[in-house]
Amino acid sequence: MNHVAGLFLIAALVLAAAAQGRTAADEPPTLAQACGSTSGLEAQSSWLTTGDGVRLYAIEAGSGSTAIVLAHQGRADLCGWLPYARDLVESGFRVLAFDFRGWGHSQTPSRNRLSLGRDLSAAAARARTGGALYVFLIGASMGGAAVVQTTSALRVDGRISLSGTRLWPGFGINNRRGLARIHDPFLYLGSRNDSRAPMNEALGIVHRIGARDKQNVFYAGGSHGWDLVESASFAPRARARVLRWIHSRS
User: Fold this and answer.
1) Which pLDDT value is given to residue 199?
2) Residue 162 main-chain phi, psi, to 5 deg
């Protein structure tokens, strides 16, 4: 092998190694890698790309014609949804859970860092292209507030907020005028003594939602967010309520 051919071979090997490295780095972590446990949920992980080019980490599980998009709480990621996601899959639904921009394994963009509605839109679009005929959004706390405050332009088959009223500074952008433009079915679940989502504030949010088909349920105590459907003493009743509500609208 002459000197020039040797240089070409070395260059080709370097480029191939670099390409292999990029491929490996671009592979999303498995659910077990991302969360330390699957909690018994069989899910495929993937990347979503939002309309403004932000890469989000997501998992998908289950099958059926109805998809549930799960939006996580603040200072958390999709891993907190795993017990409830497993319950939804066992109930016959598809589930798509994702990490909001700047959280978990998703990208932190230099611009639009609080544009959580773009993330929900990308997740709902993936659920549609995955074959779902019906798409419902369920958000907990920050995720619930994002579902309420940032998705008025998004057409889905229903929205459920678990203790999500308004987004706190630094967690997203509130769109109070958008509430009246939400016309898809809406369900709010909360607790009567939740200091982070006071009952009066929640009722005000529900009142301003433009949907004719809207309901609210408040349980005793101060449970918040995904605890309403996962660990609260009334969680089995709350889960059953959500299932009935979705089934009657899909």
Assistant:
1) 98
2) -100, 95
Burial (CB < 10 A; 0-12, 13-18, 19+), residue 47, is middle
Question: Using 50, 70 and 90 to split pLDDT, how confident is the model at 25?
Answer: low
**Strand, helix or coil for residue 149:** helix
What tens digit of pLDDT does each residue of 196-224 get? Answer: 999 999 999 999 999 999 999 999 999 99
Rounded CA-CA distance 66/62 in Å is 10
∠ at Cα 38 (142, 100), nearest 5°? 25
Q: What is the pLDDT of residue 5?
A: 46
Backbone φ/ψ region at 234: left (φ over 0), alpha (ψ -120 to 50), beta: alpha
How sure is the predictor about 2, in pLDDT bands with cuts at 50, 70 and 90? low
Q: What is the DSSP letter of 27?
A: S
Is 29-247 a domain of CATH 3.40.50.1820? yes
Phi and psi based region of residue 191 (left: phi greater than 0; alpha: psi -120 to 50; beta: remaining):
beta
Dump the DSSP string for 54-93: -EEEEEEE--SSEEEEEEPPTT--GGGGHHHHHHHHHTT-
Angle between helix 116-129 and 142-149 (nearest 10): 80
Give me the sign of the Cα torsion angle 170, 176, 177, 180.
positive
